[in-house]
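Readers of this paper often ask what the protein records in our data store actually look like. Such a record has a labelled line for the sequence and another for the backbone structure tokens. Nothing more is needed to write down the fold, since each code stands for a local backbone conformation. The record that follows is passed on verbatim for readers who wish to inspect the format.
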Amino acid sequence: MRAARSDASGNSTLTSPVGPLHQLVDRLGIDTVLLAVIDPQGRFKGKEYDARTLLQRLGSGPVTPEMCGYVLGTDLDMTPLRGGEFSWEGGFGDVAVQPDFDHARVLPWEPNSAIVLARPLDGGRPHPLSPATILDEQLDQLQGLGYEVRVGIETEFVLYASTGTDAAAAGWRGLRPVTWDNRDYALDRPRPAANYSRLLRQALAGAELPVEAVKLEGAPGQIEVTFPYGPARDACEQHVLFKHAAKAVAEQQQLAATFMAAPADGVGSGMHLHLSLWDGDRPLLVSDQDAGALSAVGEHAVAGLLDVLHQTGPMWAPYVNSYKRLRGPFAPSKLVWGWDNRSAAVRVVGHGRGLHLEVRLPGADANPYLALAAAVAAVRHGITNGLKPDEPITGDANWDEDLRVVSRHPWDAIEKFEAGRVSRELLGERVVAHLATLAWLEVDHHAARVTDAELARGFAQS
């Protein structure tokens, strides 16, 4: 979708909502620019600028803004690290960021606003602890072996009939989902859900973020959005923009959207990574001899994913709440693969040239850059070592007690991450140490807090 504007003669013209910043300001009347980096949680962090003032600064020479470095090293509540590279020990210094002014994007859900993504720097080079750089490193190494990664992301989230402000005032309790029963695939949708779906699609289309499909899911208020295949870096950037839009459009409709992995008992929201490998126009996961079978490279990729993902849990299940989803329905609990089997951690799905791998472990709360980096590193590990997977699972993997289990507790996952030889070799000691420190910060946040569930279970009985 392109934004329509009138020229001097009053005739309607079409202008792309993605392009150099000065063109968007001149042609679309943009007056606000959000300069943003991606934080470890997969959110936008940054500053708001007056568009004309920023353009004047650009005209006077190269602009290298700075932000406090702790935007790369805090938890969900922006709690600073204790120790590590972004802490009081380091003085909370600034990091320079390199904006991509030639790839600004209009945000239809923010009036007269555009966003410019910026890359954190370290000594003039991309900062190695930036989520985007962590992914770039893995993609570049795999590309060096001759493999291009293409990705499609589908994510579930839950929509509530309450504003974020009202939900906070209620202590996030007693919220009413916009649907009240299992409406999976239903087209007889309650009006608030139908309106929201349409407005979200329109907003995303206005930012040139085409949606493949939107559907209701099985849990009350749950919605799934699927995006088309494309370059891996673009898929992650678009996903962060989508989450920003989903929350903004919800707030405009007096609703609230959450991407928690487990926002309620028995409810799990996932972020499924659909991943394929290519050499130009040639798909590499499907066998040349049998369009319904994996190639040798495909088998290596599956084996690598199963061998490495259990060592990289903090990259795709970063919070205490993440592991509660892994105990619920439709979330994989065993490290196995299968053909079109949703109980498997790695599902092989599609046909012919469309054959691809669906990595089903990440929750909706995962940072797509880090989750995909873990998956790409695993694929590279499988290919370079010529790994072979076990036989594919048939039936419900969750009930087979002989299969390897996904970590059920965050501390177990973090310990595996820190101690894993393969994860440290693939990602580097500095990256593992940094992400593990963030993961422990999340665990520590919950350690001394008494929950409603503890009171309900233990107050009268203990």
In short: Residues 50 and 207 are 20 Å apart (CA to CA).
